[in-house]
Amino acid sequence: MSLYRNIIWFLKGIHEYTRSAASQNFNAQDLSVSVVGRSFLITGANSGIGKATAMAIAKKGGTVHMVCRNKDKAEEARADIVRESGNTEIHVHILDMSETRKVWEFAEAFKREHFSLNVLINNAGCMVNTREENSEGLEKNFATNTLGTYILTQNLIPLLQKSRDPRVITVSSGGMLVQKLQVDNLQSERGHFDSTMVYAQNKRQQVVLTEQWAKAFPVIHFSVMHPGWADTPAVSTAMPQFHQMMGDRLRSAEQGADTVVWLALSKAAARQPSGLFFQDRKPVPAHLPLAWTHSSTEEIQRFMPECSLNTLTSHPHI
């Protein structure tokens, strides 16, 4: 079954995820908006899709909070965005999303210091190619991609709920289509460690989180999306062979960011139901046909508490 999924997914990717497949027929009016006075928090905002998203929002007048791990790269990216957009309401916050206690502390501080947050964009991610643990004993990919996203979102929901037209967008990956939610091995402790599949599993987890958040918090518009195969520093570093093989068939970072920006800014996106998976500004199925990747109700009911449990286990005083 996994071979079937991988073959079908790759063929789908060649057809839908490349530069040539990026739509040229989007409705330009969807993004003819001003978002002056609205605030946006973007993780992983100093390069790739995160930076392209921050740039696009800054050009529309939004207040942008860039959450980045590396201070020098973050400040350099901020300078680029301010220079090109003319918008000085760009703020840098330094945070390592793999350190879950620090993520919780950041979210709590942000709620104290800011009276509103209109849009949260969960973009930061990683693909660590060997099994490594963070300082709290959590596997790094899971800690960053899933638990960091979970803790940041959960803790900012009260602030989002108080804000006008609140939205949460999570940047997932089409790779999640080859994965079924695996509740019994969240830390990748059993079996062969394949970083590509671990990353895909984390991205499936993000889709499940989005679906469950949409049901639990109807006042907020939740969405999760696939940017296509984009030429970003993260892809070239984590998947050098794939990056070399695909070459100029990869989308630009701006093309990869387009649907994120559309979901964050447009009225058309807000008219879509909450909790959907998007690709090229359209909701698309979150499962391949006949791939047996749907989760049971029981699996989902176990997964959400497991995220909470891992949070509490890594820092019991929360």
UniProtKB/TrEMBL annotation:
**SUPFAM superfamilies, per the entry:** NAD(P)-binding Rossmann-fold domains (SSF51735)
Q: Which InterPro entries does UniProt cross-reference here?
A: NAD(P)-bd_dom_sf, SDR_fam, SDR_member_12
Specify the signal sequence span: none
Protein origin, superkingdom: Eukaryota
Q: Could you tell me what this protein is called?
A: Dehydrogenase/reductase SDR family member 12-like
User: What is the phylogenetic placement of the source species in the record?
Assistant: Eukaryota, Metazoa, Chordata, Craniata, Vertebrata
> Gene that codes for this?
LOC115375269
